[in-house]
Amino acid sequence: MSFTNYQNEFQKLLDRKYFSSEMHPLRKDAFTKLEACGFPTQKWEDWRFTNLSALTENHFLISEIKDAPQNNIDISQYKMDGIQTIVIYNGHFQQDISSVPEGIELLSGAEYSKQMNGQLFHSENSPFDLLNTAFMDSGVCLIVAKNTSIETPVRVLFISNGDNSIMVNPRIYIDIESNSSLMFIEEHVGDATLFFQNEAVYITIEKNSEVEHVRIQSNSMNTHNMANLHVKQLEYSRYKFYQYADGGKLSRSNIYVDLDGENAECNINCLSLSRGNQHIDNSIKVNHNTPHTYSSLLVKSVLFDNSTGVFNGRTVVKKDAQKIEAHQSNKNLLLSKSAKMNSIPQLEIYADDVKCSHGSTTGQLDDDALFYFQTRGIPKNEAFVLLVSGFVSEVMEKIKFEPLKNYINQKINSWIA
Amino acid sequence: MLEIKNLHAKVEEKEILKGISLSVKPGELHVIMGPNGAGKSTLANVLAGRDKFEVTQGEIQFNGQSLIEMLPEHRAGEGMFLSFQYPVAIPGVNNMYFLKAAVNAVRKYRGESELDAVTFLKMIREKLKVVELDDSFIHRPVNEGFSGGEKKRNEILQMISLEPKLAILDETDSGLDIDALRVIAEGINNYRNNDRAFILITHYQRMLNYMQPDFIHVLMDGKIVKSGPKELAHELEEKGYSWI
Predict the structure, then answer these.
(1) Residues facing residue A84 across a β-bridge
(2) For an interface test with B, which of A300, A361, A365, A371 has the most B Cβ atoms less than 10 Å from its Cβ?
(3) Distance in angstroms (rounded) separating the CA atoms of residues A320 and A292
């Protein structure tokens, strides 16, 4: 595997006048570690079903000023009522058309780092965390002070456009102090001809707070998406994650949740719809680090054509984490003979008083159900749409914000039709 | 209305129907009885258009049209209805949504205007009363978590909503308690008229205590071996099938 391209780009990034050199030691440290381990290969247990060779075969360049929009950009096609939006275009923050609801403190990465006295929390769970730390560009940090409920959802809209082969490494921090709540949406769109996005999202939810996080991945079929999500939950916190993915050529979501406080609860819901040669991999690791914590995973995939998918769910219950409850459910619908799904549900339990379950099913559309619909006069193609919609409907059902739920349902319906 | 002539059908190289002939006229109620494995459900499925059964010989005419090449959804549009022995559960699909899609698909096929949500709801509430089910029933996923009786009532609800010319009821009476049996029998009786025909497939004659069939047919080993009036059912009940 050749890293030369990444080495060249890293040097270019360090030479940039407009990047704070205070971050350089952190970046260099991460890059050195990345060089030592390299990108994962299919010999790595956690990566054996996902081929990453495209990441080194293609030459991705860091996004330059010329890749920022030259004119005002039109985001009306992504309009959603009742929310506020922050726009990042090819890694460049678009201040003029960005806003956040009152009560949220919005900081750039550099500002946030200053506020944290240079002690940026970062993970080294996978080489892509290191890559992100080395190259992190578009920093968005949202802070919600204690006792603050933000009623208006905030969205970060990532637009990847253009014909240059670009790599961006967005870094997002979301800190929710105690007794507060936030609904956070990240939406990935665009028509880029070749793109690599390696985002890292760090969410800390303090005592008695709640975050609903919706990730919509509908970017171009030539995008390589690496999403690294790190969630840390303190006592009585609630985290609800919904991922809807129908875009991207090669996509992997690495989701890590640490349930660090008693009575913390997380619900992870992922829906992947793939066609053509798309590959969507969801690798989720939930750590029950304390007693009385709750987690549930609901992951569904619908696969057409030659598309492939991976579900890797790992729930780890630490030795002293008694009285926890953890559930995993993975269901996959294969709609062609050549589509392929790999499902690895795993429970690692070191405590002895726990309630855990996991299950995985992969199958085709039920012929009996299709026939049943037809005998009721419903034409086969319509029956097909109804049945696939029925299969996926429960995953996004619990999203609280109706306009967003409708927005996603429309995407689902147009995808199936 | 329905003319079946020398019908042969097979599934995976196994011949199940071995020459069935049956003629059903508007207004008639036919009962088909027979032991397990005789081909009763196969006959029902072939009539409704299930493609895993291959018709190898014979013909089926429904209101003057040949059925064999017709799609199941078109058969429904032409007025054929099959009540399933084991209705499938469809998680995630709301019963009302399903019923509305079915009613409107059939109306569209028949050249009628589609019903709007309000008109549909009004209509379906009337029909729910007939099968003695409450409103909450149509907001649940189709057959998901329904009891045996609820599933069968749901079938009858669909039948009276789609207004078929010929309804084939495949063991609609099995697995039902007396109350459910009564509700379903009444649903069918109230629904009988001079233009509409029924084929009732059953193991037991107990359903026949509530209704007046015109003919009883005994299906054994893929053929109708005996036909007769209502009294034939009593005789079968007493003597079993080996008597024939």
Answers:
(1) A154
(2) A371
(3) 10
DSSP 8-class letter at A288: E
Residue among B157, B94, B97 at smallest CA distance from B127: B157
Residues of chain B with a CB closer than 8 angstroms to some CB in chain A: 48-52, 71-73, 75-77, 81-82, 84, 87-88, 90-93, 97-98, 101-102, 105-106, 109, 141, 158, 162
Mean pLDDT of chain A: 95
Helix (H), strand (E) counts: chain A: 8, 21
**Do residues A281 and A344 touch, judged by C-beta distance below 8 A?**
no
Distance from CA of B119 to the nearest CA of A (A): 19
Report, as ranges of residue numbers, the positions in chain B whose pLDDT lies below 50: none
CATH of residue B155's domain is: 3.40.50.300
User: Does position A63 have pLDDT exceeding 60, yes or no?
Assistant: yes
Residue B72 C-alpha from the chain's centroid: 13
Burial of B8 (0-12, 13-18, 19+ CB in 10 A): middle
Mean pLDDT within A180-207:
97
Instruction: Report chain B residues whose CB lies below 8 A from the CB of A393.
Output: 92-93
The answer to whether A375 faces chain B, any CB pair under 8 Å, is yes
Average pLDDT over residues A123-136: 96
CA nearest neighbour of A31 among A8, A60, A63:
A8
Compute the CA torsion angle A373, A379, A380, A385 (nearest 10 deg).
-80
Structure tokens at A386: 């109804």
Closest CA to A328 of A349, A302, A351: A349
> How close is the nearest chain A Cα to the Cα of B178, in Å?
27
Asked if B39 contacts B221 with a C-beta cutoff of 8 angstroms, the reply is yes
Q: What percent of chain A has pLDDT over 90?
A: 89
Spatial distance between the Cα atoms of A294 and A374, rounded to a whole number of angstroms: 42
pLDDT at B180: 82
Domain that residue B11 falls in: 2-243
Q: For chain B, how many structural domains are there in total?
A: 1
| Model pTM score | 0.90
Is-contact A160 A195, C-beta < 8 A?
A: yes
Residue type, B229: P
- Tell me the chain B residues in contact with residue A382 when contact means C-beta distances shorter than 8 Å: 101, 105
Residue written as tokens 């080194």? A56
Q: Which of A372, A386, A393 sits opposite B101 (nearest CB)?
A: A386
**What would the two tokens of residue A49 be?**
């079903």
CA distances from A373 to A167, A326, A351, B88, B161 (A): 47, 36, 47, 10, 14
Write the pLDDT tens digit of every residue in B32-68: 999 888 999 999 999 999 999 999 999 999 999 999 9
Q: Which of B102, B87, B204, B207 is nearest to B147 (CA)?
A: B87
> C-alpha angle with apex A188: A184 to A193, nearest 5 degrees?
170
Helices (H), chain B: 40-48, 72-78, 95-109, 117-130, 148-162, 178-191, 231-239
Q: What is the pLDDT of residue B205?
A: 78
A360-398 confidence digits (pLDDT tens): 999 999 999 999 999 999 999 999 999 999 999 999 999
pLDDT at B182: 86
Q: Does A368 touch chain B (CB under 8 A)?
A: yes
Ranges of H-type helices in A116-235? 127-135
